[in-house]
Amino acid sequence: MKEMAKKVIKTGYGLGLLSIHQGKKAAAQVKRDLHLSDEESMHLAKEFVASSSKASKEVLKVAEKNIMAAVLRTKLVRKRDLMKMRKAVRKKMQHFSRKK
Fold it and tell me: What is the gyration radius of the CA atoms in the chain, in angstroms?
């Protein structure tokens, strides 16, 4: 179970890095092809990041739902305990994101 969680996290980070890299690459290509100014290309890059962020949130929502269902099916934890842990993790994540 621990190994599966590690793989899921590594895959998520990998996909995030890949999408950032591809977004930068696409923005640079469009800038060259359309002869955009720096300001226009920056605006385009921000749009890429915003749409990528939205898509990644949707993917993470589906992944979280499926992982929770799989964990519950294994009967390693009760649903109530899993929800408590989920709430605690989200609270910690909010705390750390405020510090930045």
Answer: 18
Alpha-carbon gap, residue 25 to 21, rounded angstroms? 6
Check: CB of residue 41 under 8 Å from CB of residue 27: yes
Give the pair of three-digit tokens for residue 95. 């705390």
CA 52 to chain centre: 9
- pLDDT tens per residue across all 100 residues of the chain: 556 655 656 666 555 655 666 667 777 777 788 787 878 777 777 777 677 667 777 777 887 888 888 888 888 889 999 889 888 888 888 887 776 5
pTM above 0.85, yes or no: no
Q: Give CA–CA dist 91/96, Å, rounded.
A: 9
